[in-house]
Amino acid sequence: MRLELEDVHHVYAPGTRFEVPALRGVSLAVEPGEVLAVVGGTGSGKSTLAQHLNLLLKPTRGRLLVDGEDARGMKLGELRRRVGLVFQFPEAQLFESSVRRDVAFAPRRLGLGEDAVGERVRQALAELEISHLADRSPFSLSGGERRRAAIAGVLAMDPEVLVLDEPTAGLDPFARAELLGLVRRFRERGRSVVLISHDLDEVAEVADRVCVLERGRVRALGTPEEVFYANPALAPATVRVMAALGRAEAGRPVRFADTLQALKELLEG
Amino acid sequence: MLGRGLGQFYPAESPVHRLDPRAKIVAAGAIVAGLFLVDSMAGFLVIGGAVVAALVVSRVPVGSFLRAMRPVLFILVITSLFQILFYRRGELIFGWGWIQVYTGGVELAAFLALRLALLISATTLLTATTSPLALADGLEDLLSPLSRLRFPAHELAMMMSIALRFIPTLSSEAEKVMKAQAARGAEFSEGGLLRRARALVPVLVPLTIGAFKRADELAEAMESRGYRGGAGRTRYRELRFRPPDAAVLALAVAAVAGGALV
Ligand SMILES: Nc1ncnc2c1ncn2[C@@H]1O[C@H](COP(=O)(O)OP(=O)(O)OP(=O)(O)O)[C@@H](O)[C@H]1O
Ligand SMILES: [Mg+2]
Questions:
Q1: Membrane-spanning residues where (chain B) (predicted)?
Q2: Which CATH code of 3.40.1080.10, 3.40.50.720, 3.40.140.10, 3.40.50.300 fits the domain covering A3-222?
Q3: CA A183 – CA B172 distance, rounded (Å)
């Protein structure tokens, strides 16, 4: 599934004193099978952009294309199933008496049979490694466990595109690494992930492409090498180290392992 | 999320905004009471004139004022319609099958509509020109004589200002949770009444839990800063009753008296 935003503008509270132009002409595609990272300062419009990918917010101007077709022609429920959106701090959406029942909410809404629902729930819980919490109340869990339960609730819809709005904010390093593992596994199945993040180091590890938003506009878009080496001051530690060394023969590594390898080769050669 | 709905404060620089909240509360109360005493067109004109004059002086844009009235418009239309159709005194002015309209019904409907509209206008004007904090302060002060009778005036005012303070927070929270559930396939505008009510469960549960959590945190924050109720508490902003406040109060009472008598 390919999603494309075409010159999307979004204004909050138009025509009032509180008018905020949050997106100002964003054009961007999410290709099948890629991890697209969206980075940018607070208030740059990342969450607003995320909500346009399943039309929870409608563009004030511009449109969303799904596999080349205008998404306004699609059923909203269908679009929202295929594009799974995990909100910023999703733990606030849990409401059922047990994790299992909460994760079952979305597949039930899809009208699946009991067996199919059970299977979806089992898979989603296993994917997030919280199968042992299935019968606990969501409100008795720790913050990180609740976050994972909420993500499982979206995964249970079996979406083709997964949009994660700052999923690792406030998680411990271990939980963070696990979540990035989930992102990679999702991509390996040929599906795409839109990862909104403030953490450039984690973006460097998993992203195929990076989009930098600034005050509602796309400031840069490209592979991590292109984007980060164009402005090493605003780049992950790996890029800053390589840029500071200024050794062109080392190439332009971005991931930690690649950087380490390049440094080893420099030292030995 | 911001700046909409009944009872929103509209910050501006105007003589009405600067009035002592106590004067405004009493004046609005007098007008509301007066509306139930008035039973002539001339009387409504007097009180309506006073309200419109206050609106003009207050610099609250008429547009946002009318928007605040919109939710009540429906009730207003329905009740007026009932009066027109079913009140059968005076002369018959229109008859068609079971539909019979009498002058008495039209008059009653007009009075009812005017009464409701002016009632809402007066109270909306009060909340639009008085910040929630000033409103709570004024109310506390007006109720304070009752605290001798163990009426919890301060606590009531504090509860009111906290509730007002958290309305925007709660409504933006509700919006967020609704969107998050919609992303999981929830539908809020589909099916009959029962189905719609059931669809709200996934929104109300997290919202309620969030509200309790926030209340806990607020209580802890207040206690840790030494809040111990109203006794012996001084104010940062002292209320001052000045000559213009007295003048406005006198005018409001005069309008009500005039309206009731003509
Ligand atoms: N519901 C809303 N009503 C009005 N304005 C809003 C609303 N949501 C966001 N905004 C405004 O739109 C702009 C973009 O907000 P958005 O939430 O998309 O930013 P963000 O990049 O996700 O920020 P963060 O990193 O803090 O999550 C901000 O200026 C914000 O104040
Ligand atoms: Mg955000």
A1: 25-56, 68-87
A2: 3.40.50.300
A3: 30
